[in-house]
Design brief:
5-stranded antiparallel sheet, Uridine Diphospho-n-acetylenolpyruvylglucosamine Reductase, domain 1, single chain, alpha+beta, Uridine Diphospho-n-acetylenolpyruvylglucosamine Reductase, domain 2, binds flavin-adenine dinucleotide, 3 domains, Uridine Diphospho-n-acetylenolpyruvylglucosamine Reductase, domain 3
């Protein structure tokens, strides 16, 4: 059956919402950094907070499942795609400054946030230099690295509940921990960060140095979703264990453990989600056999 016809119900539920594009059966692969994944039953891209509220509210009333995606930089979408509505936030990308505070909408790309803050002479966000994705994804994942994570910068987060109600949550109420936050099924609408004033050139040069250090050790040009596994206990490097197990360069189908950084599984040649999953399972088994450590997934899997 034609995909667009088969997928009509979830899309038609969202008909007529102003400032919102809706596509039935839209392929998700181009929406992810992996370039992998089947279609969404319906893909909605709201361009206003009102449109987002309406999408969430209608889905809630109709009992249609909703998933939210930003830049798809931490996602592995199954080859069969996903049921229900996928909300993509890329059209919500406002960024406003109030003194030392910056409020950024969920769909603003992280690199855009880093650049804007540096231009404004506001320091702190450069810790996120070189991390792809959006502000909403960075909040959901508490994105960061050696130079720090987003959580300590956050003052408050505006969210939307599954029934379309807007809330403002203080940072202390976000349950931030290593690469996670407790969103309680809410969608991030915007985040307000508290930053420090500094010379723009100094902030810019630190951002460049952090980006360059990442690019020197990680395969930033290859298709991936970043680190596949969480560092066990948040301390020992999963990449160190995978490398020590001799797995750099291991393949399954078109997926490969990056020879550059062992915690990256890259889409080397038309990989499928099944290839990535099979290789991740192989890595997990080998590391368990060799070191008695169970690796947990850091990337989010949509099956
Ligand atoms: C080359 C490369 C390098 C990377 N390096 C790092 C790194 O150094 N540090 C790091 O932390 N990460 C890194 N990552 C992973 C990724 O960049 C981060 O996790 C980023 O924060 C994901 O943002 P996103 O918008 O792409 O989220 P997505 O991949 O779209 O979504 C990830 C999760 O967040 C949820 N989500 C997204 N937006 C929202 C929203 N508005 N409201 C509620 N939930 C939402 C999704 O439902 C999903 O569960 C890297 C990825 C790549 C490809």
């Amino acid at each position: 059956m034609d995909l667009a016809v088969r997928h009509r119900p979830a899309a038609s539920l969202l008909e007529g919402i102003p400032d919102c594009t809706v596509r039935a059966g839209a392929p998700l692969a181009p929406c992810t950094t992996y370039g992998i994944g089947g279609p969404a039953e319906a893909l909605a891209e709201p361009a206003s907070v009102e449109a987002l509220r309406e999408v969430l509210g209608r889905c809630r009333d109709a009992g249609v499942p909703v998933r939210v995606m930003g830049g798809g930089a931490n996602l592995l979408v199954s080859d069969a795609g996903v049921d229900g509505v996928v909300v993509r936030t890329r059209r919500l990308r406002g960024c406003y400054r109030y003194g030392n505070r910056v409020t950024a909408e969920a769909g603003l790309p992280i690199p855009g946030l880093v650049t804007r803050c540096a231009e404004w002479g506001l320091a702190g966000a450069e810790a996120l230099a070189g991390i792809p994705g959006t502000v909403g994804g960075a909040i959901a994942m508490n994105a960061g690295g050696r130079q720090g994570e987003i959580a300590p910068l956050v003052e408050s987060v505006e969210t939307c509940t599954p029934d379309g109600v807007l809330r403002v949550r203080a940072a202390a109420d976000m349950g931030f921990a290593y690469r996670t936050a407790d969103l309680r099924s809410e969608t991030v609408v915007a985040a307000t960060l508290g930053l420090r004033r500094e010379d723009p050139a100094a902030v810019r040069s630190r951002a460049q140095a952090i980006h360059d250090a990442k690019a020197a050790t990680q395969p930033l040009r290859d298709r991936s979703a970043g680190c596949v596994f969480r560092n066990p206990g948040g301390k020992v490097g999963a990449g160190f264990l995978i490398d020590a197990a001799g797995l750099k360069g291991a393949t399954r189908g078109g997926a490969m453990v990056s020879p550059r950084h062992a915690n990256f599984i890259v889409n080397a040649c038309r990989a499928t989600a099944a290839d990535v999953t099979a290789l991740a399972e192989h890595v997990r088994e080998r590391v368990r056999e060799r070191f008695g450590v169970s690796l947990e997934s850091e990337i989010r899997i949509w099956a």
